[in-house]
Write a structure and sequence with these properties.
The structure holds two protein chains of two kinds. By secondary structure, chain A is an alpha+beta fold. Chain A has four helices and nine strands. Chain B has one domain: Immunoglobulin-like (Sandwich), CATH 2.60.40. Classes of the chains: A alpha+beta, B mainly beta.
Chain lengths: 156, 104
């Protein structure tokens, strides 16, 4: 996605919520996050569109991204996933789950000595590929791992 | 919110290993209340920042797909015992969650 469109999409629709939050004192102006929440990417239903909206389009498969996740998740509501990027110059890492209602799960930027590693727990609606995308040196990379889910974790 | 965040930071070699657990429903907005039949509105942490001695090390955005009572583990090179690791999170309703721990 070109940077101008990305910047526009990042800001559209988010100013109001942040302004209200600051006005009500709930979000102090001093707590500044690098960018406004990427509501577009997080609500996109198509996996490839979500990756594009998150800035991870054109990702090349890489075995230098190591994903740890159970082969079978008994409880789709809480699936432990961790990932390490061994790609030099990694600046960020994101998690997507193909078969979730909204595939984009999270995006992490690494700064000031943080290692390109994240461990977390995700919800999986059903058996699906878990994707980890990485931005390194301005290029995008991706690795995938299938997790079988016996009881879905998105509700119902 | 008291006790909403539990944190631990320990040295693994020359890397600070941090584990954080935050109490939060992480409601997706897709589930119905079984009694009323109405949708439970989305209520989830969507931004998280972690700092080491005040310098940002992790800047994260989350969606509803992160599991309830979210856990996050991350590692920082160059930290040492006595350093302060802080985590500041905010949810989609603007409620803040803050925690701080000293590296053991």
């Amino acid at each position: 996605m070109n940077q101008l469109r990305r910047a526009f999409l990042k800001n559209a629709g988010t100013v109001g919520a942040v302004a209200v939050a600051i006005a009500t004192g709930l979000l102090k102006p001093g707590t500044v996050f690098a960018a406004a929440w990427n509501s577009l990417a997080f609500t996109t239903k198509d996996l490839n569109e979500a990756m594009k909206n998150a800035g991870y389009d054109g990702a090349i498969e890489s075995s230098d991204i190591v994903i740890k996740a159970p082969e079978i998740a008994e409880n789709g509501a809480v699936v432990p996933v961790s990932a390490t990027s061994n790609i030099a110059g990694t600046t960020s890492m994101a998690i997507f789950i193909d078969k979730n209602p909204a595939p984009m799960i999270a995006d992490f930027q690494f700064l000031n000595g943080a290692e390109p590693y994240i461990a977390t727990r995700v919800k999986m609606a059903k058996t699906s590929l878990v994707r980890v995308t990485v931005k390194a040196g301005g290029k995008n990379y991706i690795a995938s791992r299938e997790v079988k889910v016996t009881i879905g974790g998105c509700g119902g | 919110m008291a006790e909403a965040m539990k944190m631990r930071a320990t040295m693994e070699g020359d890397v600070v290993d941090v584990k954080v657990l935050i109490q939060h429903p992480m409601d997706t907005g897709l589930m119905k209340d079984k009694k009323t039949g109405k949708l439970i509105p989305a209520h989830f942490i969507n931004q998280v920042v972690a700092t080491l001695n005040g310098k940002t090390v992790i800047d994260a955005q989350w969606g509803v797909g992160i599991a309830q009572n979210p856990f996050i583990g991350f590692r920082i090179k160059g930290g040492k015992p006595g350093d302060k690791v802080a985590v500041n999170a905010v949810d989609n309703l603007g409620t803040k969650f803050d925690g701080e721990v000293v590296v053991a």
